[in-house]
Amino acid sequence: MSSRRTAVVVGPLVAASFSAVLILSGTVGAEDGGPASSKGGKAVDKAPAWVRLTTLLPEKISVDNGSKKTAITATVKNEGSKDSGKIRMLVVGFDGLVVKNVEDCSAIPENGLPEGSNSGFACTVGNLAAGKSKSYSVDATYDLSKAGKICLPVQTDDGKKTFWQQGPVPFGTTNPSPDAPATPLLLGTDNKPVSPGGKELAETGPARDLLPLGAAGASLLAAGAAGMWWSRRRVPGRQAG
């Protein structure tokens, strides 16, 4: 794996759809997270003919109860029979899940983040050939006293269309382990955080049906139990090169 570096936003983020991998040095890894899943994902805008874009997240991750660090593998795939054209993928954190860094990608400035999110990165995928996939390393933390969600929209490189969006989909547990070294979290499970006293569980409450993104032309739409979808959002990007 190539070494990680902190991305600096310079000018508009001209990224292209991607797949992300949350891996932290010295933290609980996602290697044993079982098969990857597209749970919480949905096609949004119509993709070009014979192009089928999806993303994948691990079914299970673990959070270090001391450092709050975690690792997630997120992958973008073209399951169609033709090349995708230039695309980008965004990695956006919500609530207790904070995306700290994504390898070779650009941080979305605070004033460009979707409303309700706490962090995000835009990654250039470029042209993804038919049958191919791409993954990235992403540093993240998870505050187990809160619920936590992640969102992976796959867009045209200019952000005008969103072909696919996974999330915001939760990672969580209904059986917290505050005294254990790490807490396992399952994809698509609402987290029941431990209260400050450590003996009682706090209810996270019902999910919101609509979460605006705060920028013109952007919205997260409810899609049943699967989550909320991000469509037609422009995100400031990194200058090419």
TrEMBL record:
The region annotated as signal peptide is 1-30
- UniProt keyword list: Signal
Q: Which residue ranges are recorded for the region named Disordered? A: 171-205
This chain's protein is named LPXTG-motif cell wall anchor domain protein
* Organism of provenance: Streptomyces violaceus
